[in-house]
Amino acid sequence: MKPGFRQPRTRLLDVREFAPSVHYAEYQRIPPASGYVRRLYDSELMYVYSGGILVHFEDEASPLALFAGDLLVLPPAVAHRIELTGTPDTRLLGLHFDLYDEVEIEFEHQLAIQDGDGGEDRIGYWPVTGAGSLVFARSYRSAPMELASWLEQAAEAYHASRPAASLACRGYMQLVLAALVGLSLEPQSPTVTAYQKRLLELRADLQQSLQLPHTNKSLARRLNVSEDYFIRLFKQLFGESPQKYVQRLRHQAAKRYLLETDEKIERIGALVGYDDLHNFSHAFKKWQGVSPQQYRKRFRGGVY
Q1: 223: domain range?
Q2: Which one-letter DSSP state was computed for residue 120?
Q3: Does the pTM exceed 0.85?
Q4: How many domains is the chain built from?
Q5: % of the chain with per-residue pLDDT over 70
Q6: What number of CA atoms fall less than 13 Å from residue 213's CA on the CB side?
Q7: Would strands 37-38 and 125-128 be described as parallel, antiparallel, or unpaired?
Q8: In this structure, is residue 290 part of a structural domain?
Q9: Are residues 197 and 231 in contact, defined by beta-carbon separation less than 8 angstroms?
Q10: Percentage of residues in the chain with pLDDT exceeding 90?
Q11: With DSSP H G I counted as helix, E B as strand and the rest as coil, what are the percentages for the chain, rounded to 5?
Q12: What is the average pLDDT score of the chain?
């Protein structure tokens, strides 16, 4: 990394000023790679679906490790290098934006600051508290599934051609930002901390085995606790019940299969844990508002 760390240009936090403008949104599947050093004019949210990343920041001695379910926040101006560590690949959703609708970006190659381009005055602002500390953390562990869903909706709206899509995109981004501002920084209870490692390992296993039933009873057995106690622990750490969490994982995986593959609808349902086409279609429409067939037809040429 080059010396000379630059903090982002800052602005005192006032959520009423937020007017997020999305410049780029893509789902990515990337094999292991060391990455390159870059600085951004705007900001980026990067949600990890599977695999892992190491983020080397110029002002931190050790890299920041993120895994499935974690959210990375990259502020403007700060130099960083992203190392992809997933095998065979890492699956991500990357979404570039600026908070105050002030950064003019038309093409993907304009996202990163180029040495000597004279564009330092175009770097976006980043909010700080009255004490001068940055409002947003650089990572959020086990980001709420609602937040991941809003990011997906923002990405889909960004690529949609229907009227008012840009307004919908901004609305979903407002929900994301509100969730990030509101996330509690208070320490977890000692009980949750004691089980955290095993719960995170369990979550990783869930993402790799969605075709299995995964009842509360079977999951609780893996932690050697009662079913009721397991549900309380899981909800304290991840913000929702185990079954709702699994349903969200299945829905996210189904959307990726629909857009990334040519698998038949019935086969996709089986891959994400539904025993027949009717149950899968009913569950998918309940979550997404459209059938799997309609979703594939509408978005196949879009964000993937």
Answers
A1: 192-299
A2: G
A3: no
A4: 2
A5: 91
A6: 5
A7: unpaired
A8: yes
A9: no
A10: 56
A11: 40, 20, 40
A12: 87
